[in-house]
Design a protein that fits this description.
The structure is a single chain. The longest helix has 26 residues, at about 20-45. It is built from 5 helices and 2 strands. The radius of gyration is 16 Å and the shape is globular. A two-stranded parallel sheet has the order 1-2. The chain is mostly helical and about 130 residues long. Helix 1 crosses helix 2.
């Protein structure tokens, strides 16, 4: 396995009307970061990257829309703008792939909401790699 090269939690710059579109916006922002990380690794160690990079996602609708693009969007998702599908090129070209990971197994979920007790311990151990 590998380790995450980075994750972040921040207020989105765009208002979203639906959780799936919010996930797509966040995914789009992460692909920017992934491209920069790839460029840096290419500079430091040319030819050593193993593609595709894996990006974990806990929303199956987001994964479906990311791979199928606008054709997967039904009437309720018409508001998802085309600019968030630019990363589809990265998926189709083999630069990255999206894999489903349950929320309770996703290390970044510790940063998304307040956790306490056993849940907090579980996520801390997950992040520290002791699980």
């Amino acid at each position: 396995g590998g380790v995450p090269i980075g994750w972040k939690s921040l207020k989105q710059k765009v208002v979203s009307l639906h959780s799936t579109s919010a996930e797509l916006i966040g995914l789009s922002n992460m692909f920017d970061l992934l491209q920069c990380a790839n460029d840096l690794m290419q500079f430091l160690q040319p030819g050593r990257q193993q593609l595709p990079f894996t990006v974990f996602q806990d929303n199956t609708s987001t994964i479906t829309i990311a791979y199928m693009g606008r054709s997967s969007s039904h009437a309720k998702r018409r508001f998802i703008e085309i600019r968030y599908f630019w990363f589809k090129e990265h998926l189709d070209g083999g630069f990255a792939k999206l894999d489903y990971l349950r929320s309770e197994d996703h290390p970044a979920d510790l940063l998304a909401s307040v956790r306490s007790g056993a849940e907090f311990k579980h996520f801390t151990n997950l992040i520290m790699g002791t699980i």
